[in-house]
Design brief:
Blueprint (H helix, E strand, L loop, with lengths): L1 E4 L5 E4 L24 H9 L13 H8 L6 E4 L6 H10 L4 E6 L4 H11 L7 E5 L5 H8 L2 E7 L4 H5 L25 H7 L2 H12 L4 H13 L7 H11 L5 H23 L2 H15 E11 L2 H16 L3 E4 L8 H6 L7 E7 L1
Parallel strand pairs: 3-4, 3-6, 4-5, 6-7
Antiparallel strand pairs: 1-2, 7-9, 8-9
Bound molecules: S-adenosylmethionine.
């Protein structure tokens, strides 16, 4: 903060100004970080097809509401609370009668969302929020009883990606963390310190189909062997960039960007055991759903979608689900146009017999 002298000769602190209409850093975007206060700015940003800082735009809202067919008096669960956009719409459908449970592993965003929803009038009489991994869905069901509807919108929220301190994005400097719950497990930086080259190749290939897995893994392991720990997002990005120098210049920048996206995603899946917890969730689902209970799951990459599809098909064959999505539902062209994150989304649903 800068300071000036006022009439009495006393030092006066001047508030840091919003830097123009195109703030570059996350902290400069403080107007957007208070979306309720600066609603006009938020509308303008969304109209341009962007997501305001500190906010997440929920995907396939209408499609999900239609599938879940929520009625007042029912009991349901949002397994991935995030910004609470889907939760809010589900609450509206309950019309203050019934019960909604919501969970998220993230100890940083969860209290913010809880407060926001409370301010909108949704307190413990209708909404119960728990900081919990959705692999523990059975714990919620012990309290809630059979669930009439369940939603899981997998992956990360825009708030998590945009906050450089969480280390989810290669686009800004930050600690190489990538944990959804930074209070548990080990960071991506720690994970890379002890991983073998073969394991890393497998991780990049199996989690994200990275075509340059071999050469990137070799470069990462060689950097660590030289005694250079990879502790920041930009350090990892630089290693990937250098490893891919052999790509012709005409396509190199685009290829590097895609590889960075895939590698960060693969490491994130690993440090958060995303396939393992999704598998546990899918296995426990039939036991927590009421008869006729509906589940909708939004996935963002082929590995997740394969797991969901396989589980739904298995339980359909066994007669546990009476109906499942024949094909995944995709967001409309209009939604993909206004929200680029929607482009990779696939929505599957099932109904318990
Ligand atoms: C795409 S966002 C959800 C956005 C939300 N539907 C909305 O409308 O704002 C995904 C959220 O799921 C959470 N999450 C991911 N894996 C989880 C897990 N295994 N258990 C609980 N929450 C999880 C993340 O922390 C993140 O907040």
């Amino acid at each position: 903060m800068s300071s000036t002298m006022d009439d009495q000769g006393q030092k006066r602190q001047r508030r840091v100004r919003y830097k123009g209409t195109h703030p570059k850093t996350f902290k400069d975007k403080y107007k957007e970080l208070q979306p309720e206060k600066y609603s006009e700015d938020v509308v303008k940003i969304i109209q341009k097809g962007n997501t305001p800082a500190g906010m997440h735009r929920s995907i396939c809202v209408n499609e999900i509401l239609e599938l879940l067919d929520i009625k007042p008096g029912e009991t349901g669960l949002d397994a991935t609370l995030g910004y609470g956009g889907h939760t809010l719409e589900m609450l509206k459908r309950l019309e203050m009668s019934g019960c909604l449970y919501a969970m998220d592993v993230d100890p940083i965003e969860l209290p913010r969302t809880k407060e926001r929803l409370e301010r909108l009038g949704y307190g413990p009489e209708i909404l119960t929020i728990k900081q919990l991994n959705f692999s523990c869905i059975d714990q919620v069901a012990l309290e809630s009883g059979p669930l009439d509807f369940v939603l899981a919108d997998l992956g990360v929220s825009s708030m998590q990606i945009d906050n450089p301190e969480r280390g989810f994005s290669f686009k800004s400097e930050g600690p190489l963390d990538l944990r959804l719950n930074p209070e548990s497990g080990i960071s991506a930086a720690e994970r890379l310190k002890t991983i073998s080259k073969d394991e890393l190749v497998g991780m990049l290939f199996e989690n994200s189909d990275e075509p340059h897995a071999e050469v990137i893994a070799k470069a990462i392991i060689s950097e660590i062997k030289k005694g250079h720990e990879i502790t920041t997002t930009t350090h990892l990005m630089q290693i990937i960039k250098t490893a891919l120098r052999f790509i012709p210049e005409s396509t190199r920048d685009e290829e590097v960007k895609k590889s960075c996206q895939r590698c960060f995603q693969a490491i994130r899946i690993d440090v958060n055991s995303e396939f393992e917890v999704l598998y546990d969730f899918l296995e426990k689902l039939p036991n927590v759903l009421a008869s006729g209970g509906r589940v909708a799951i939004l996935t963002f990459h082929s590995g997740e979608d394969r797991l969901v599809k396989k589980s739904f098909k298995k339980y359909l064959r066994e007669g546990i689900y009476k109906e499942i999505a024949p094909d995944p539902i995709r967001p409309s062209a209009e939604e993909c146009h206004t929200n680029s994150r929607a482009r990779s989304a696939k929505l599957r649903w099932a109904i318990k017999a």
